């Protein structure tokens, strides 16, 4: 038996209510109230005074946040939501908005300042509701794919190599032209700049024009051409090579070098994107793809600040990101993983920012293992005489202090070392041989006092049970945000191009995550929220509402049995 289904009727009668009310705990109400709480002067800061009246930025911000909270990041799909989705219609008051308007709003430079103010206001509301603590701020980063073709790469090493070859060719051509008696107004020794190549082509044009007049006045043809024709042919060959090959390539390499800005690569599709290794490697071949490095600071799984960097190394982004965090002074500890542990970061964090880092260094876990501590070849396990300042290795070779050394890494950071060299007069002849390298040189060890101080400082802090517990919250605080972003919202790739536009989109997306989390909290703590449901797990009943709240608040008591 089936239910009655008849298509012979000519009309369909449907009763549709004329009013639509949003329930109090709906996400659109949270978004609307939050945007309305922003300072009006910030929302209307860039109000146009000419032309057609623009849409109110509060409305555009509300509809963008709501669309992002529903996993819609396409301008056309956001426009479709505004036409079909009732909560979206409630936000926009059933105003027809084009996807072009939405896209222009997302990438506008004025939106960037609005987003910064939005995060400060959101943090103030979190503090007012006691949803964040002033104990520690958690920092981590992830890679986000850019809206660029994966085979549009430009490598700096390849550019430098090809440009060096081109400079050699231009130098050889210049020498050949000088020997041929070509009059030039430039002087060059190693390679020619684009301006010099352009000037050289201009000089050749003038000389070719003079030769054209001479050839036009010749009356009797000569076998093989007259000297003027032969010289004109040679000059045209030089000009053709410069204008069609050397000059375009040199201009291209000049633009490439200006675009790198310290990076090793960039994408032709998105000049601000850098090729880096992504965590989501579907082919499992380690292929580099264009992307951005997203850094976030969280507390209680709320994103309090973010910043987008084009370089893939987290070590270099740490201090600039913290300096851009306006609320950093509200926290006592800065927690991050071992990828941020470096001498420069420790020094800047302790001395400049006056914060306590809970950040292990790269070899910390390995150095705490019994295998490392029992390895006699490690200089950290050698005997040290503080009075006379010398080391003795496991074979009995003496290493005395020789001199100080200062080294700079490729980013300009200064490191100071104490160099210890094996004594030339060891107690025995056998030790004299052991004091030398296979090439016959005296063995040396390098000791960095500042780095050793920071290592001991970090070990002391992370060995404290209370601080160790704070560091243990890192995985469930900041990592959960990335899991929610990529796992639940499937946000693996940005949809705009350019660093500023990408920063706007990621800021809107992360704020949508924050508001979604706040909505869940309000729903669980309001009379209109989720009803309690019990589930069976390991023959024990648990409260479903407590399980959900623990997902958002890891510090709560987990899986409390129902009495």
Report helical residue fraction.
40-55%
**Into which percentage range does the β-strand content fall?**
5-15%
Number of strands: 15
The backbone outline, from C-alpha atoms, is flat
The number of helical elements comes to 21
- Provide the residue-averaged pLDDT: 86
Largest sheet: 6 strands, mixed
Head-to-tail CA distance between termini: 46 Å
The class by helix and strand makeup works out as alpha+beta
**Taking Cα atoms only, what radius of gyration do you get, to the nearest Å?**
34 Å
Q: Which residue ranges are poorly predicted, with pLDDT under 50 across at least 5 consecutive positions?
A: 528-563
Question: Can you walk me through this structure?
Answer:
There is one protein chain. With 563 residues, the protein is an alpha+beta fold. The chain is 46% helix and 15% strand. It is built from 21 helices and 15 strands. It has helices spanning 27-36, 40-43, 57-69, 75-84, 86-92, 99-107, 109-128, 156-179, 194-217, 227-260, 314-323, 343-352, 364-367, 370-373, 429-434, 449-463, 465-472, 474-477, 479-488, 499-524, 544-552, and strands spanning 136-145, 153-155, 265-267, 274-277, 288-299, 302-309, 333-335, 356-358, 383-385, 390-392, 398-408, 414-422, 444-447, 534-537, 540-543. The strands form 4 sheets. Strands 1, 4, 5, 6, 7 and 8 form a 6-stranded mixed sheet that branches. Strand 14 (534-537) and strand 15 form a beta hairpin. Helix 7 (109-128) runs parallel beside helix 20 (499-524) and helix 20 (499-524) runs antiparallel to helix 21 (544-552). The protein is flat and about 100 Å long. 26% of the residues are buried.
């Amino acid at each position: 038996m089936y239910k009655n289904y008849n298509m012979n009727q000519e009309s369909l009668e449907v009763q549709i209510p004329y009013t639509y009310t949003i329930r109090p705990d709906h996400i659109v109400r949270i978004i609307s109230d939050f945007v309305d709480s922003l300072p009006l002067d910030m929302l209307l800061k860039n109000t146009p005074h000419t032309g057609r009246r623009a849409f109110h930025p509060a409305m555009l911000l509300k509809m963008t946040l709501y669309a992002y909270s529903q996993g819609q990041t396409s301008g056309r799909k956001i426009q479709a939501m505004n036409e079909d989705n009732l909560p979206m219609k409630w936000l926009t008051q059933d105003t027809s908005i084009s996807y072009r308007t939405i896209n222009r709003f997302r990438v506008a430079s004025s939106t960037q300042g609005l987003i910064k103010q939005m995060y400060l206001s959101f943090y103030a509301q979190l503090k007012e509701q006691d949803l964040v603590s002033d104990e520690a701020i958690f920092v981590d980063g992830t890679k986000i794919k850019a809206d660029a073709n994966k085979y549009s790469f430009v490598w700096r090493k390849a550019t430098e190599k090809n440009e060096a070859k081109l400079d050699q060719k231009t130098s050889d051509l210049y020498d050949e032209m000088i020997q041929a008696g070509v009059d030039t107004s430039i002087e060059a020794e190693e390679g020619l700049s684009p301006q010099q190549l352009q000037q050289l082509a201009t000089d050749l044009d003038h000389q070719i024009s003079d030769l054209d007049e001479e050839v036009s006045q010749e009356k009797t043809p000569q076998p093989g051409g007259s000297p003027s024709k032969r010289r004109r042919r040679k000059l045209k060959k030089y000009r053709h090579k410069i204008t069609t090959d050397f000059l375009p390539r040199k201009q291209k390499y000049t633009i490439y070098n200006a675009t790198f800005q310290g990076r090793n690569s960039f994408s032709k599709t998105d000049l601000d994107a850098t090729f880096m290794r992504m965590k989501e490697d579907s082919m499992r071949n380690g292929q580099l793809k264009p992307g951005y490095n997203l850094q976030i600071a969280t507390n209680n799984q709320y994103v309090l600040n973010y910043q987008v960097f084009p370089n893939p190394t987290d070590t270099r982004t740490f201090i600039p990101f913290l300096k851009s965090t306006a609320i950093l002074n509200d926290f006592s500890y800065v927690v991050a993983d071992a990828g941020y542990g470096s001498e420069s970061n420790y020094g800047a964090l302790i001395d400049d920012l006056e914060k306590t880092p809970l950040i292990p260094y790269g070899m910390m876990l390995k150095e705490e293992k019994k295998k490392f501590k029992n390895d006699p070849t490690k200089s950290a396990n050698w005997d040290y005489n503080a009075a006379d300042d010398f080391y003795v290795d496991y074979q009995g070779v003496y290493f005395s202090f020789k001199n100080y050394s200062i080294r700079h890494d490729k980013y300009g950071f200064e490191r100071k070392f104490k160099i210890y060299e094996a004594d030339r007069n060891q107690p025995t002849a056998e030790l004299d041989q052991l004091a030398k390298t296979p090439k016959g040189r005296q063995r040396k060890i390098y000791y960095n006092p500042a780095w050793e101080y920071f290592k001991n400082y970090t070990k002391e802090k992370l060995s404290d049970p209370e601080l160790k517990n704070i560091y243990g919250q890192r995985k469930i605080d900041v990592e959960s945000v990335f899991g929610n972003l990529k796992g639940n919202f499937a946000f693996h790739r940005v949809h705009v191009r350019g660093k500023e536009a990408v920063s706007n989109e990621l800021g809107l997306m992360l704020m949508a995550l924050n508001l979604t989390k706040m909505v869940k909290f309000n729903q669980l703590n309001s009379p209109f929220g989720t009803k309690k449901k019990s589930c069976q797990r390991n023959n024990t009943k648990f409260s479903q509402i407590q399980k959900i709240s623990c997902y958002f608040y890891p510090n709560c008591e987990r899986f409390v049995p129902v009495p």
